[in-house]
Write a structure and sequence with these properties.
Structural class: mainly alpha
Strand content: 5-15%
Largest sheet: 3 strands, antiparallel
Number of helices: 7
Oligomer: single chain
Order of helices and strands: HEHHEEHHHH
Mean pLDDT: 95
Radius of gyration: 14 Å
Number of domains: 1
Low-confidence stretches: none
Amino acid sequence: MEATAQMWERVRDDAGLLTAAEVAAFTGVTPSRAVEDAAAGHTLAVVIDGELLWPGSQFEADGTVAMIIRELIAVAEAHGYSRTGQVFWLYSPTTYLAGGRRPVEVLHPDPQAVLAAAAGNMGVEW
């Protein structure tokens, strides 16, 4: 439980965990549309303590969703990752990226590297 709380703090400290109202204000959609987009796999949202929240790292500075997010969600779900698991993967170092970086650090400058890392890392079977 403590490790999970620490991960959520890391996400919150990095780019924030946004409410539907905050996503709506930032992206220019309604809060209900923000929820619909999350349900459809267009954005990545997780339930934390009963509240639906969006990691801010998936949004570009202009309020658009990073183009890779839909594909990343699809890859992760194809390999059985929950939405929480997807966020944890984004914020955890991986040897599938140069220097063992966290995917969230590479998300905006090199989205294709993140997709390739996801496909490789998430597809590993032991």
